[in-house]
Design brief:
Keywords: Hydrolase. InterPro entries: 4-hydroxybenzoyl-CoA_TE (IPR050563), HotDog_dom_sf (IPR029069). Its EC number is 3.1.2.-. The chain has 3 helices and 6 strands, in the order E-H-H-E-E-E-E-E-H. The chain is an alpha+beta fold and 141 residues long. The longest helix is centred in the N-terminal third of the chain and has 21 residues.
Length: 141
């Protein structure tokens, strides 16, 4: 599988994220994905000067598939994320929480749909041409 054009976020595990068996609690994965997504969008939007991507998005859907238990350890876990779909008024980010060594191991595969939101008008809005140009450059596989 080609993993080009994926953004990488190194996520530090926290002791409090574990369940009684020493696994990351399933509910904590969404927090990890949010941290990765916010860093991804903020870093990209800042570089491109498109601040509406930083301040005007809401998550309308999450899908999370748990593939393997992740045990607590001091080393961070790798989150790879990329844009998989862009529509007129939404876009989708795909994620994999993985380790690369000794071979690629996938703990979680997930997807979130984001919609642009005009908080002043309190309504959904369409993706602007400037936002679309930035998002097009983030489409990965």
């Amino acid at each position: 599988m080609d993993h080009h054009n994926r953004h990488v976020y190194e996520c530090q595990l926290r002791w409090g994220d574990m369940d009684a068996l020493g696994h990351v609690n399933n509910g904590r994965y969404v927090d990890y994905l949010q941290d990765a997504r916010v860093e991804f969008i903020f870093a990209t939007a800042s570089k491109a000067g498109v601040d509406t991507l930083e301040t005007g998005l809401v998550v309308s859907r999450y899908e999370v598939q748990y593939r393997a238990p992740l045990h607590y350890r001091p080393e961070p876990v790798r989150i790879e994320l990329w844009i998989s779909e862009i529509k007129a008024a939404s876009f989708t980010i795909d994620y994999e929480i993985v380790d690369l060594e000794p071979e690629r191991r996938v703990y979680v595969q997930a997807r979130s749909r984001l919609v642009p939101f005009d908080f002043d008008a309190n309504r959904l809005r369409r993706i602007t041409p400037a936002e679309r140009a930035v998002l097009d450059g983030l489409v990965g596989a």
